[in-house]
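Narrative progress, year one. The postdoctoral researcher (J.K.) led the effort to move from monomer predictions toward full complexes, under supervision of the PI. The following entry was the first complex the group processed end to end, covering 855 residues in total.
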Amino acid sequence: MNSMQPKTWSMAGGIQLAANKQQSLQGPIRTALLPPQLIVPVTQPDYSQPQLCVQVGERVQKGQPLVCVLSAQGLAAHAPAAGIVTAITTHAVPTASGLPELCVVIDTDAADTSWHKLPPLDYMQSDIDTVIQRVAESGISGLGGAGFPAHQKLRSSLGKVDTLILNAAECEPYLTADEALLRERAMDVLDGCLILLRITGASRCLIGIEDNKPQALAALRSHAGDPRLHIRVIPAKYPSGADRLLIHALTGTAIPASTLPIDCGVLCHNVGTVFAIARAVLHGEPLLSRITTITGAAVQQPANYEALIGTPIRELLLQSAVDTTRLSQLVCGGPMMGTALANADLPVTRTANCIIAATEPELPLPQPAQACIRCGFCAEVCPVQLLPQQLYWFARNREHARALAHNLADCIECGACAHVCPSHIPLVQYYRATKAEIAEANDKQQRAHHWKLRFDAHQQRKAVEKVAEEQRRAERAVLASQKQQSGTAATLSARDAVAAALARVQAKKAAGDKLASGSVASSNVADDNKDSRS
Amino acid sequence: MLQVVLACVPGTAALWFYFGYGVLINLVWLCVLAVGLEALVLILRQRPVLVYLRDYSAVVTAVLLAVALPPTAPWWLGLCGIFFAIVIAKHLYGGLGYNPFNPAMVGYAALLLAFPVPMTRWLLPAGVTQALPDIGTSFALFLDHDIHTGIDAYTGATPLDKFRQHHALLVSEFWKGTAVMGQWSGVGWEWVNAGFLGGGLYLLHKKIISWHIPLSFLLAMTLLAALFYDGGSSQSHGSPLMHLFGGATMLGAFFIATDPVTAATTTRGKLVYGALVGSVVFVIRAFGAYPDGVAFAVLIGNLAAPLIDRCTQPRTFGHSK
């Protein structure tokens, strides 16, 4: 497109890594075979209980919604293939936490190939809300890393975005899912960019791609006709694809630590996500599959697969002719930031961009850590300019305040420091643990504060009640003494008073029956609210 | 760390050439002691001995202390020094990575304070004196045997020490009037420093050390020396070249001040740290009670390193100044 390379900004630190990408780029994207069983995660982004709209034993169509999305934060999920729901249960999924998540298990039916699609949407004519609604209905969340619901990101950015960024950097070794997608379907990806430009009203879209992907770059260049699309080639250096670093590389703006990119008028989306948005809007296809790289020296045919969400990883490994005798480690994601998997029965999720079936020499088990000699190699490669050697010290000593003063919270956990450490110290593990400790301590403090407020309110309430009680007692005493004074003369009128009181009680009871239980419950709730507010 | 030992070869070879076998005897003796003591302490601390011995940090400490000792040092001097270095300065503080002070320099400073006489008994370099002690005499000195010929036949003040007493002479007059001064600095010492400079450049080339500390160390020393050179008058504190190639300058700048464990660790901090150590070395030489001051300067730098690190934190991505 442009013969002259426009300005990009260089990253501080970073490391050169062996790319190991060509292995999985030998052939085109393969369509994964339909597995006999799909395990579809339906967890919500906020970990709330999803409202399922299918039951065990029910027959589902391909593309049929599994989750009824009620809130704006909800994330839809669909049956990736036709079949019968055989279980709704928690199942291990490939996440860093390793916690099992709620999944819908579908026994697939290969004979039924019908597809429940939505009508295509003319995004230029429809209003913006309709387009965002379509993204929401299609169950699209970030396919790059964090897995944040795409519609939510779009909605929160309305009217704020000036620059849209397409993250095509894919800087981690082995990963080629985005590159393969761009090589073969750059057109769709760029259509997705135009849709996002329309939704957000951004004036330009910067496409950030590393210089080690010439074919993907050529594909992008041949299709990027719209003058708002600008391709920016950046040097291949890990971790250039981390969103804030990429934004800096393309725009020169370092997003302040306490703010989100959107506060600076930048919205960043991954290639896979944008592709899914294009398919959802232009073809009415919900997100049912993703491109997953199957690679590593333990598979004989490394390749990219278009795999249905929920496909057991084992199935993909078998299709790539895995040699289990040589397999030493299974990693989901890249070798730098990925998660080691306990077994291959876990399903492909929206964020599972790569599965590395590594042999022992390829990804050796970590060597025993030696003492930190503060050589400072880690500080040289830290892309966010932290002092990992100092943070390590604070982490070991549990000095949370000093760790925070050295900006531990800004660590993006890219692992560059641990990679260059001559003492083989697993630095990122220390930082993750310390971050978790700090979060837990904050949580504890907040809870303690909450209970203190409740206790104080309770004490106050008791004091008020005590005063009121004493007042009532004094009043009663006054009444009683008056009664004694008025003596028997009042006996007649007292009989009338008893009758009147009985009538009052009766009337109250009739009215009270209707509210009874409800009013008790709501008064409790009101009490609770008052406490937490005070 | 073996690379560091390798980089010491040219400087050590020059020392051997100009000061005889005592240098090598010290070297071997201290290495043996260092490894032995390190193993002993590791056993006492119930640590895996072989794993830690393989980091060769004890050998590096031994080499650095050995080349700093006078070649006439008796066996017990080295023993005391390396004991201080390995056991007290390093392991009592938690072992490699936890020691706040450079172990070799703690050992050296302790010896200088405790045994000033044997610690300042340097030999006259080859070329100035007719005969260096032969291998037998060197062993006799090492075993602390009484030598009938008298050790005084071999020893003499070091050039830096001599220069401090140039009193009313112009620098040029002093230079002519003594045999121990060579081309730029002391005879022999210039080549020893050139050797350590070469070794230091090798370490830089291999990216084992970064340029920050040596450069700011040497630059600070050069600037101060130039400032106090005073045109070579009788008040002069010596030319920058004399200081750069005299005493333990290059050893200190490339091998001792660059010990990452005890130095400042931020990029700007390294520059400040190097400049501090280089300045203190010059100040001690020019105005202090000792002819050379690398050990004390490095220890002072070690003291200041945590503060320097604290004040020179880099600006994190996305943070304003």
